[in-house]
Automatic annotation (TrEMBL):
Coiled-coil regions listed: none
Catalysed reactions, semicolon-separated: GTP + H2O = GDP + phosphate + H(+)
Subcellular location: Cell membrane
Protein name: GTP-binding protein rhb1
InterPro entries for this protein: P-loop_NTPase (IPR027417), Small_GTP-bd (IPR005225), Small_GTPase (IPR001806), Small_GTPase_Ras-type (IPR020849)
Biological process per Gene Ontology, one example term: signal transduction
Keyword Lipoprotein among UniProt keywords: yes
The keyword Calcium appears for this protein: no
Entry membrane topology: Lipid-anchor
Keywords: GTP-binding, Hydrolase, Lipoprotein, Magnesium, Membrane, Metal-binding, Methylation, Nucleotide-binding, Prenylation
Originating organism: Tricholomella constricta
Gene Ontology CC annotation, any one: plasma membrane
Organism placement in taxonomy: Eukaryota, Fungi, Dikarya, Basidiomycota, Agaricomycotina
């Protein structure tokens, strides 16, 4: 009999400052094209079956509205999230600085010390306007026990890796004896 493992469900929330490229990254992953224009997101949910490590994962990817330091985590918005993708633009130091702020809000809200998380340096094609070195991104991820990758939705570089890394972070924390990891019950709005 095909068990639950044949199609595991995973909810992934994509968070970060405004205009860092969250929607473009998700749309490139789901629909394989790049959005040139900027349309601020309210919230969109996408689904995709993602093969990882010999298993098909039914991923629900929640593309959230851009965050700032005043955005609040509200219990009314809390839903079961298994993994977090925190996105900054390599061309915006401010968006990079927001990553720790968002990370800490999630940790505080969930009352945990560690979450399955991938930190993403988006827009790596913008070589001439880079404000964040790769080494800074790697250091931030290491300090927070998170995975890290740089991407370009425009050139479709490393976009699929983001979601594979996120599944890896989720699965790393899932006890082998239990079929489903406990959702972290958090969503930053
Ligand atoms: N050069 C370049 N531009 C990008 C890339 N990804 C996104 N952009 C552009 O950046 C702008 C913002 O992209 P969005 O994907 O809408 O950003 P967002 O983070 O979803 O924005 P919010 O909805 O406000 O949170 C758009 O004009 C995109 O075309 C990329 O990889 N390279």
């Amino acid at each position: 009999m095909a068990g639950r493992d044949a199609m595991k469900k995973r909810k992934i929330a994509v968070l970060g400052s405004r205009s860092v490229g969250k929607s473009s990254m998700v749309v490139q992953f789901i629909e394989n094209h790049f959005i040139e224009s900027y349309y601020p997101t309210i919230e969109s949910t996408f689904v995709k079956s993602v093969p990882y490590n010999g298993t098909e994962y039914h991923c629900e990817i929640i593309d959230t509205a851009g965050q700032d330091e005043y955005s609040l985590l509200g219990p009314k918005h809390a839903i079961g999230i298994h993994g977090f993708v925190l996105v900054y633009s390599v061309a915006s130091r401010k968006s990079f600085d927001m990553i720790q702020v968002i990370y800490d809000k999630i940790i505080d809200f969930c009352g945990v010390i560690d979450i399955p998380c991938v930190i993403v340096g988006a827009k790596m094609d913008l070589k001439n306007s880079r404000q964040v070195d790769s080494a800074d991104g790697e250091r931030l991820a290491a300090a927070n026990n998170a995975a890290w990758v740089e991407t370009s939705a425009k050139d479709n570089v490393n976009v699929a890796n983001v979601f594979e890394l996120c599944l890896a972070e989720i699965e790393k924390r899932a006890p082998r004896s239990q079929p489903e990891p406990k959702p972290s019950n958090c969503l930053v709005m």
